[in-house]
Amino acid sequence: MDRDLAILNAILEELKAHPFYGYREIARALADIGVTRKQVRRIMHKAGLRAIYPKKTDQYSSERS
Predict the structure, then answer these.
(1) What is the pTM of this model?
(2) Is the residue at 64 inside a domain?
(3) What's the domain count of the chain?
């Protein structure tokens, strides 16, 4: 459990620097401390963390208004 908290803190620090990173990029960045992709994915899911990226837009939204 303490290890998960340490990993979560490392993930949060990485997301502050690179908010557009998903779990794979985070795992690559934290590989030097021995964190796996599965650990990063599980912890990010539990904490409700997601990468920031552009959402899909409706191509007809301006015509409907």
Answers:
(1) 0.77
(2) no
(3) 1
